[in-house]
Write a structure and sequence with these properties.
94 residues, Non-ribosomal Peptide Synthetase Peptidyl Carrier Protein, Chain A, 0% strand, globular
Length: 94
């Protein structure tokens, strides 16, 4: 498990599982099917991610498949951070 996954899991344990912080959350666990994150929780989680990593997640990326598990979220974030660092987000197709 990498540092990003640990940080995301810490947030979920504190904010989504406050009464069950010892829940054995796995990085590949489906956050929606398990009932850990609902639509309201997802909005708060996305706000945390944007604040923590100083990024803006574009509307077209706000898809359930990008936020289905901690591992998927971490991979998505890593790709976004690389794109922003390389300036890919500011390029337009011709």
């Amino acid at each position: 498990m990498n540092e990003m996954e640990i940080k995301l899991m810490d947030y979920i344990r504190k904010e989504c599982l406050p009464d069950n912080s010892s829940y054995p959350l796995r990085a590949d666990e489906n956050l929606f099917d398990s009932g850990i994150v609902d639509s309201a929780g997802l909005i708060s989680f996305i706000a945390f991610i944007e604040s923590e990593y100083n990024i803006v997640i574009p509307d077209e990326d706000l898809l359930p498949e990008n936020f289905i598990s901690v591992r998927v979220i971490a991979c998505y974030l890593a790709s976004r951070l690389v794109k922003e660092e390389c300036g890919v987000e500011n390029e337009t197709a011709h």
